[in-house]
UniProtKB/TrEMBL annotation:
Region (Disordered): 33-56
Name of this chain's protein: Matrix AAA peptidase interacting protein 1
GO CC, one annotated term: mitochondrial inner membrane
Domain of life: Eukaryota
GO BP: any one term: protein insertion into mitochondrial inner membrane from matrix
Listed PANTHER family: M-AAA PROTEASE-INTERACTING PROTEIN 1, MITOCHONDRIAL
Sequence ranges of Low complexity compositional bias: 42-54
Organism phylogeny: Eukaryota, Metazoa, Chordata, Craniata, Vertebrata
Regions crossing the membrane: none
Length: 245
């Protein structure tokens, strides 16, 4: 079974020589068009929209928060070189925008399975050795934490590539890995004492205001590009900050 909108990948071998590069993203919060100073670490905001008007028919006003990612220019240039190498030597049809969209859908699907403890359904989507570790961790989580693992597609506020790696092993097998970072909202009730550092937002839904917390997750996708191997991607690393570290 392949990941939704992605073709799966081979499980990562234990002994490999590799090159890896890191991306450092900055986030700016925009409230009704006014820019605020970026925080010291990657963060984000909910897209909270609340239109309203008076009984006299005054012009409607809208408030919202928009997330904008500003990558480090040098890192941005280096990652583009890696994308070029992937297209040139591995996959001529590779497109990072399409990959990011597919990874977003895969993240939502896999995170939902995790929250529902459907570990058998992860086979073919997540590396086998990782599934067992995830099951051990998830079985120790309280119900509210499990609920917070699930990321609805409409609640994913921001997606960006992180590490990009091209790998070769001693047998000449070729691998590519891409770490994707996600910021998403959850309405799960989480204790404040263990969620220190996360951001809380009041999101207006119609006439009601719901409290949501912004969480982050890292999912690494890997694929073997050796000739004759099924061109599938698989997830070999899953991290949910404050939940599954």
């Amino acid at each position: 079974m392949a990941l939704p909108m992605l073709r799966g990948c081979y499980r990562f071998p234990s002994t490999l020589s590799f090159t890896r590069l890191f991306s450092n993203e900055r986030i700016i919060l925009n409230w009704s068009g006014k820019t605020r100073s970026p925080p010291s670490s990657p963060a984000g905001a909910a897209a909270a929209v609340r239109p309203y008007s008076s009984e006299r028919g005054r012009k409607k006003q809208t408030q919202k928060i928009v997330m904008v990612g500003i990558p480090n220019p040098f890192i941005w240039f280096r990652t583009r070189i890696y994308y070029f190498l992937i297209r040139t030597y591995f996959d001529k049809e590779f497109n990072i925008e399409e990959f990011a969209e597919g990874s977003k859908q895969a993240f939502s699907h896999v995170s939902r399975l995790l929250s529902q403890s459907q570990f058998e359904a992860l086979e073919g989507l997540v590396a086998k050795d990782l599934i067992g570790k995830l099951e051990e961790k998830c079985n120790l989580l309280p119900l509210s934490y499990k609920q917070a693992l699930s990321a609805d597609p409409d609640e994913i506020m921001y997606t960006t590539p992180g590490d990009v790696g091209i790998y070769y092993d001693d047998n000449g097998r070729k691998f590519v890995s891409i770490l994707m970072r996600f910021w998403y909202l959850t309405s799960a009730h989480l204790p404040d004492d263990t969620m220190e550092g996360t951001r809380i937002f009041q999101v207006a839904i119609g006439e009601e205001v719901e409290t949501k917390r912004l969480l982050t997750a890292n999912y690494e996708f890997q694929r073997e590009f050796t000739k004759g191997v099924t061109p599938d991607w698989t997830i070999t690393r899953i991290e949910h900050s404050k939940l599954l570290d």
